[in-house]
Design goal:
Length: 266
């Protein structure tokens, strides 16, 4: 076969997922018998023989007789030739960068979860999370909404800085509140981060679980530092009637905070 015929045969062979699976098996361990190739793929010997014949015709594999057995070996040369013709001419750094972007976009995004306990009632916790004046006291932001699923909610700093607007995903007072908590600026391709407050009563105390999902990796550290401080201020407010004398997030910055954290990154 000439070069064009060989290339056509290679592309035809690679178009079938079963043949690609056989090549993957040989990539993991070359020099396998027909029986060894069939067993994990749950394929009949006749079907495997036909597929291996196509791969051998495309020179993607070679065979060697050993007694009554035939050993199959992967031949990467045709794939290398295709790589040189179809990929090498392009800018490798650009392709590598695109591959990195794809890998990061498909990677599961970090999840942050924080649990605390308050000596109060579920209704008081719900009220504190949804009342604009109370959120201003322990969070440094006014949370404004009608708190119905699908409605917008506004997270507005008390110092006059621009706020953010998210969506109420779920509201089941006084047990569960789920919101989008978008970062300032355009939304990332994966969508806005989400935060869920779960309020569970246990006798005279309440377990509050804050779960922050769909976080960009560079926002995980911000969430890790911010949520314990916000929850500590909430706990102090509900148990003593006043928030902590100093915002807890100042401890992480090393200097007085000019703005309370919105826990949504920057």
């Amino acid at each position: 076969m000439n070069e064009v015929d060989v290339e056509d045969a290679v592309f035809k062979a690679l178009a079938d997922p079963t043949r690609r699976a056989l090549l993957d098996r040989l990539r993991e361990r070359t020099g396998q018998t027909l029986g060894e190739l069939c067993e994990p793929l749950r394929m009949t010997r006749q079907s495997a023989t036909q597929h291996l014949g196509v791969l051998e015709a495309a020179t993607l594999i070679s065979t060697v007789r050993r007694g009554r057995e035939k050993l199959h070996y992967l031949n990467p040369v045709p794939l290398w030739d295709i790589q040189e013709r179809w990929i090498h001419r392009f800018e490798r750094p650009r392709l590598r960068a695109l591959g990195t972007i794809k890998e990061r976009a498909e990677r599961p995004r970090p999840v942050y979860r924080y649990v605390t306990y308050l000596e109060t009632s579920p209704h008081q916790v719900w009220h504190a999370l949804t009342d604009a004046d109370l959120t201003a006291r322990f969070w440094g932001h006014r949370n404004v909404s009608d708190w119905r699923p699908g409605s917008p909610w506004h997270h507005l700093p008390t110092d006059g800085h621009p706020g953010i607007t998210g969506t109420v995903l779920d509201a089941l007072p006084p047990h569960r509140l789920a919101l989008t908590l978008p970062r300032p600026g355009p939304l990332p391709p994966a969508g806005a981060p989400e935060v869920t407050f779960e309020i569970k009563p246990y006798h005279e105390i309440v377990e509050l679980t804050v779960t922050h999902t769909n976080l960009p990796e560079h926002d995980l550290a911000t969430a890790t530092a911010a949520w314990p401080g916000v929850c500590a201020n909430l706990k102090s407010l509900l148990e003593t009637g006043h928030a902590l004398s100093r915002p807890p997030w100042e401890m992480h910055s090393g200097s007085p905070a000019t703005e309370a954290p919105d826990t949504g990154g920057s």
